[in-house]
Specification:
Strand order of the largest sheet: 10-11-12-13-14
Structural class: alpha+beta
Radius of gyration: 28 Å
Number of domains: 3
Oligomer: single chain
Distance between the termini: 92 Å
CATH topology of the largest domain: Immunoglobulin-like
CATH class of the largest domain: Mainly Beta
Strand content: 25-35%
Largest sheet: 5 strands, antiparallel
Shape: globular
Length: about 400
C-alpha cells in the first residue's frame, strides 16, 4: 500500500490515502456478496437480487446503487505497443434505497433493450498486424454511500447481461417492478441535502422552489473555467487593440477579428451560465388549472394547461444528475428541476408534483426514458412531415400566378 507513496511522491500520497480509505471501508462494512435471481441478467428485462453485507448497515442509512454499461476499446499502434485504452458510458442509472438494518439490501432495476450485451475482453490481438483494435462491453453494479465517503461503503460487481431468447412475460415483470417502486416511494423521504421546497399558496395552489444548482452542477469548477476563458480574452485584447490604435494591419486581420469576436461571445455566454448556476432559482407553480415554470437569470416563464398533462416522471438531467419531465398527451413537454443529485429524490418529487396536479403518480423506469425520447422524436418528425404536406397542398390549391404569366408570354 505504501509503494505509490514511495514512487509517485505527492500523487502517490493521494493514491495511498484513497487506498487506506477504501481499506477502512472494507473493515467497517465487511464482505459484500451479490446474489442474482436470474443468470444471465436479461437485456431489456429486470435485474433482481440481494446484496448480503456481513456487517449490517444501520437502519435508516441511505445506500446508492448504480448500474452502468461501458464500452471499452484498446488500440495498438505498433508491435511493441501495449495499446491505448478508451471508454464510453453507454448507459447509467443510479438509484437510492434505505437500509433496514438487516444486512440485506434488495436490488430491483431494469436493463434497457437498446444497450449492448456483455462482451468479454479478448485475451489476444485479432491479428499479427502492427496496428489492431479490440473492444469489449462491461456491465457493472456498484453500491456505495451517497455522501461519497469512501470509508463507509463501496463495492462493485461485474454482471453478465445478455439477450435471452425465451424471456417469460417481460412486460408483466417490468410493471411489477414499477408497482413495487411506487409503493417504496410512498414511504420514502429525501435526505437533508435535498433542498427543493414545496409550499401551499394562499390562493389555493402549490409552488415548488428549486434553489440555484451551485454544487450540484459543479459550479465551482465551471467558474474556474470561465475565469480562464476571461483571462485569455483579456490577454489577447491588449495587443489587438494596440495594433488597431497604431494603424498596424496584416493580411490575416479579418481572421483574427472573427476568432476574437467568437471567443468574446463564448465567454459572455459562459459568464451568464455561471451566474445562472450560482444565483438563478427555479419556481414551478400550479394555480387555476395552469402550470407555470419560471427559471433563468431573466425569469423566463413557460406555461402549460393542467388538462393537457399526461405524465410526470424523473429523467436523466445534465452532468449525470436528474430532472423532472412534464409531458403532454402530444409528447411535447417541459423539463424542470435539472440538478437533483439522487434519482430516487427526483422520482419522489415527480410523485408530489403529480399529486398536486391531480394525476395518478407512478414510478418511472430507465426504459421509459429511451422509449419516451424515441416517441418525442417520432412525433417531431411526423409534425414536420405534416407541415410539408400542408405546404405542398397549399401550393397546388393556390399556384403561383407569376408562373402562369411566364407561360403565356412564352
Amino acid at each position: 500500500m505504501l509503494i505509490p507513496l514511495l514512487i509517485l511522491g505527492t500523487l502517490g500520497f493521494a493514491v495511498t490515502v484513497h487506498a487506506v480509505r477504501l481499506t477502512i471501508g472494507g473493515i467497517k462494512t465487511g464482505r459484500v456478496v451479490l446474489h442474482l435471481d436470474a443468470v444471465p441478467v436479461p437485456l431489456g428485462g429486470p435485474l433482481r437480487g440481494k446484496l448480503k453485507i456481513s456487517k449490517p448497515i444501520p437502519a435508516g442509512q441511505r445506500v446508492r446503487l448504480k448500474l452502468q454499461c461501458t464500452s471499452l476499446t484498446q488500440t495498438r499502434g505498433g508491435p511493441n505497443d501495449d495499446g491505448i485504452f478508451s471508454s464510453r458510458v453507454v448507459f447509467e442509472h443510479a438509484d437510492t434505497t434505505v437500509s433496514d438494518g438487516s444486512g440485506t439490501i434488495g436490488v430491483s432495476m431494469v436493463t434497457p433493450a437498446s444497450a449492448p450485451a456483455s462482451k468479454i475482453q479478448p485475451k489476444k490481438w485479432p491479428s499479427h498486424e502492427p496496428t489492431a483494435k479490440i473492444s469489449w462491453v462491461e456491465w457493472e453494479l456498484s453500491v456505495d454511500d451517497p455522501s461519497e465517503r469512501a470509508e463507509d461503503l463501496h463495492a462493485a460487481f461485474t454482471l453478465p447481461v445478455f439477450k435471452v431468447a425465451e424471456f417469460p412475460a417481460p412486460v408483466a415483470d417490468l410493471e411489477s417492478i414499477r408497482a413495487a417502486r411506487t409503493v417504496e416511494l410512498e414511504s420514502y423521504q429525501p435526505g437533508p441535502e435535498f433542498k427543493v421546497r414545496m409550499t401551499r399558496l394562499p390562493e389555493g395552489g402549490t409552488e415548488f422552489y428549486f434553489p440555484p444548482m451551485r454544487g450540484a452542477a459543479n459550479a465551482g469548477a465551471q467558474t474556474v473555467f470561465f475565469l480562464i476563458m476571461a483571462a485569455i480574452l483579456g490577454g489577447v485584447s491588449g495587443p489587438l487593440f494596440n495594433n488597431l490604435s497604431a494603424g498596424i494591419s496584416h493580411s490575416g486581420d479579418w481572421l483574427v477579428a472573427v476568432l476574437y469576436a467568437t471567443w468574446a461571445i463564448l465567454t459572455l455566454f459562459m459568464f451568464l451560465h455561471v451566474l445562472r448556476l450560482w444565483f438563478a432559482p427555479e419556481r414551478l407553480t400550479i394555480t387555476n388549472g395552469i402550470l407555470s415554470d419560471t427559471s433563468g437569470l431573466f425569469g423566463k416563464t413557460r406555461r402549460m394547461r393542467v388538462a393537457e398533462i399526461a405524465a410526470i416522471h424523473a429523467v436523466p438531467g445534465g452532468s449525470r444528475l436528474s430532472a423532472i419531465r412534464i409531458r403532454r398527451s402530444d409528447w411535447r413537454g417541459l423539463t424542470v428541476g435539472d440538478g437533483i443529485r439522487e434519482r430516487r429524490d427526483a422520482e419522489w418529487l415527480a410523485m408530489q408534483i403529480s399529486r398536486a396536479l391531480g394525476i395518478k403518480p407512478s414510478a418511472s423506469l430507465p426504459t421509459d426514458d429511451y422509449s419516451e425520447e424515441l416517441k418525442m422524436v417520432q412525433t417531431f418528425l411526423d409534425e414536420m412531415g405534416a407541415a410539408r404536406r400542408r405546404q405542398r397542398l397549399a401550393g397546388e390549391a393556390f399556384p403561383d400566378p407569376s408562373a402562369g404569366e411566364k407561360g403565356e408570354s412564352s
